[in-house]
Design goal:
By secondary structure, the protein is mainly α. The protein contains five helices and three strands. It has one domain. Helices cover 43% and strands 9% of the residues. A three-stranded antiparallel beta sheet has the order 1-2-3, with helices on one face. Helix 2 (62-76) packs antiparallel against helix 3 (82-94) and helix 4 packs antiparallel against helix 5. The radius of gyration is 13 Å and the shape is globular. Bound molecules: zinc ion (ZN).
């Protein structure tokens, strides 16, 4: 599956448990664009495409997917997804990861198409959590 806007292959995963816990209606699979973090949910996927890294700044493994979904929610709308965003980033912090460093790096990364938005979201998020 390709991102409609960026025309790059999206990474597809089975939705991590914590995400379904936070948002019950979330579907079985999720595909994430590595450039703009747009998410597409689906009940089936043609195949799981596990890119080792969605973005080199994201941690590898499931926590990286969880972080990508959190960023996807942030990019959609912090206002509309406030509860989900807070819950998922608190989970990430509980897991011992530092989302601020990742967001900071992403806001400078040349491969993401959403640098400015990420930086703005990072500042807003800092006011919500802590
Ligand atoms: Zn995209």
């Amino acid at each position: 599956m390709k991102c409609f806007e960026c025309h790059v292959e999206m990474s597809s995963y089975s939705t991590p448990g914590v995400v379904r816990h936070i948002k019950r209606e979330f579907k079985e699979y999720v595909s994430v664009c590595p450039r703009c973090f747009k998410m597409v949910q689906s009940d089936t996927v043609d195949g799981i495409i596990k890119l080792d890294e969605i973005d080199e700044e994201l941690p590898k493994g499931e926590i990286g997917i969880i972080m990508a979904i959190g960023i996807g929610w942030l990019m959609e709308s912090l206002v509309l997804n406030k509860n989900e965003v807070v819950a998922i980033f608190e989970h990430i912090i509980d897991e011992g990861r530092d989302p601020w460093i990742v967001l900071e790096k992403l806001s400078r990364s040349s491969t993401t198409n959403v640098k400015k938005n990420i930086n703005k979201a990072r500042v807003q998020l800092e006011q919500l959590i802590k």
